[in-house]
C-alpha cells in the first residue's frame, strides 16, 4: 500500500519564525536587531542573515529581539544592529521614497557606530545614487561614498573574497548594477573568485565605520561566522561595554566553507 | 507538397539515434535547412497548439492535459521526453510526421521552458497557453522573477485563442490586464487552501508583517475546493465534484485544476460543453510524472522521492508530506541544472523536521544543508557528500521505516541510478 500525504493543515503565518528558545541560562543582555524592509527587500535568502544573527546571539548567551521596519512603519527606537537585503527592481521602487524619508535617522545611527549589514539592493541605495542604463538617476541616502551604474551584464556566480578583517569571505553574487567606491569607504576585500563590485577593479563590498556592505548572498552570514560575530560583538560592546562570547559550534560552517570554496563559479 | 527537409531530418534522427545521440541534432538540422517546418506542420492541427509554461509543475501538468484530452478521443502530440525547448519540439515532430511531413494528431500540447517558449511562440503562435506560476527557481538564469513574468506575458500576448492563468499567483494573474486579443480563463484555489501556497512575496515577509491586500478575484473556470487524503473537490460550472486522486502533493492537485481548465477549453466542440465526467475520470487515473513525488518500494516499504528545486517547492513538499513515522534524507546538489546558488535554502523553514530530525544529508552541498538545519535546531543523523554511500547508510539505518528523500534534480537522478540496483525504478527515455 502506498501512503498518502495527509490533508494540509492551514497555518496562519507565511513568515519566518525563530526556533523556540530552549536555554535555561540567564541572559547576558538583549540585542535589538532590525531588519530593514523585509517585505520588499528580502530575496535570495536574506532572512538567513537575520536568523544567523539571532541564533548566534543566543549561542553567545544573549537574547535577540527581532524587529522589522517596512514602508510606512514607525521607525523603532533603541536599535542595536541593522540588517538589510536585496530586492528586485520592483522592490527597490517600492521602498525608494520611504528610505529617503529615513535618511537622517539611518545616517545618525551609522555615524554613531551602529553595526549594519547591507546586501545588494540596500548596499546600492545606501550609496549616493543608482544610475540606470537609460540614464535616470535613483538617489540613495549617501551613507556610503559609493555610486552604482546599471549595466546590461548580469554578474552571477560563486564568489570568494580575501578580506584583511574577516579572512576569506564566501558567497554568491547576482547583480547587474556595478558599484564604484569613493575615497570615503574602503572595500570589504578583493575577489579571488567572481567579480564583486564591478568588472574593473577586483574589489568587493564596502566598509565604513561599523557598516559592512556587500553584493554577496548565500546567505552571507551562515558561511562567514567571523563576519556575523563582528556585527554581534560590536553591537554588544556598544550597549554593554564588553562582549563575553559563548562557544557556537562552527564545525558545519567550516565544512560548508570547505566544500563551497571548491565549487565552480 | 514534398519537402526534402523531412526525409533528411528523419535520416539524421535515425543516425543520431544509432549513435546514441540526443534529440537536439535532428531538430537543429531541420531548423537550419527548413525554418518553416515546425510552423507548417503544427498549423495543420484542427485544435491547434497549446503551450504549457511556468516555473513549477510543467511536466506533471502537461502529462495531465495530454491524458485528459486523450480521454476525449483526441490524438495528442506532445514533447514527452522533457525536451522542453524549441529544437526539442522540432526533433519530436520529426519522429512523428510521415515522410510527407503530415502529423497525425488533433492537437499539440507542448511543455516549454519560459525562455524557450518565447522563441517558440514567435515561430508558432499557439491557440492556447497555460501559465502556471512564477516562482524563484532558476534566478541565476533569468535574473529576476519580474523578468520571468515578462516572458510569460510575451507567451500570453502571442496566443490567438485562450490564455489560462493562475488566479492565485499575482504576477501571473496580472498578465490578464495586458491582453486585448485572447480570451482569458483562470484556475483558482479555495481561500481555505491559500495559505498552503505561499507565493514568494509572502514567503519573504517576516512574521507579523501585513500581507498586501489581494486584488478582487475574477471568476475562475475551475476552483480546487478541498484536498483530502486520497481525493479532491473541484468546482466548475457551479457544481462541486469529488474525485479520487492518484496524484500526491497538494501542489500537483492544484495543477490538476490548471490542466482541467485547459482541457475543458480545448475539448469544447461545436459549441458543446466538454464531457466533464469523462475528464474527471481521466484525472483520477493520472499518476505522478517522473520524480515529482513518486513512491518506490525498498525492503517492502515505500521510499518516496520528492523533487525540490526552489523555496516554494521545498516548503510545499515539507507540508504535503508530513515527516512523522518516516525516515528522512535530504540530497542537495549545486550542478548547473540544480542552480548553483544555495541562498534559497535559507528561505525554507525546516521546523516540521525538528521533532524527528533528519537521518542523512548528501549531495555536493550537503554541508550547506547541514548548516541550514543547525540554525533551525534540527538534529542531523549523518552527512556524506557522496550520494551512493549516504543512500546505503540511510537505507540500512531505517529498514523498518518508510523513507522519504527530498532531492534536487541531479541528486534525484543519481539516487534513482543507485536505487535501480536494488529495486525496480521506472525507466525514463
Ligand atoms: Zn543580489
Q: How are the strands of the largest sheet of chain B arranged?
A: 2-3-1-4-5-6-7-8-9
Most residues in contact: chain pair: A-B, 62 and 65 residues
Q: What portion of residues of chain B is helical?
A: 25-40%
Distance between the termini of chain A: 45 Å
* Helix content, binned percent of chain A: 25-40%
Strand segment count of chain B:
15
Oligomer: heterodimer
What is the 3D shape of chain A?
Answer: globular
The low-confidence runs of chain A, each spanning 5 or more residues with pLDDT under 50, are: 1-14
CATH topology of the largest domain in chain B: UDP-N-acetylmuramoyl-L-alanine:D-glutamate ligase
- Based on CA atoms alone, the radius of gyration of chain A comes out at 19 Å
Largest sheet of chain B: 9 strands, mixed
In order across it, which strands form the biggest sheet of chain A? Answer: 2-1-3-4-12-11
- Alpha-carbon Rg of chain B, integer: 22 Å
The average pLDDT score of chain B comes to 83
Number of helical runs of chain B?
Answer: 16
Structural class assignment of chain B: alpha/beta
Number of helices of chain A: 6
- What structural class should be given to the helix and strand makeup of chain A? alpha/beta
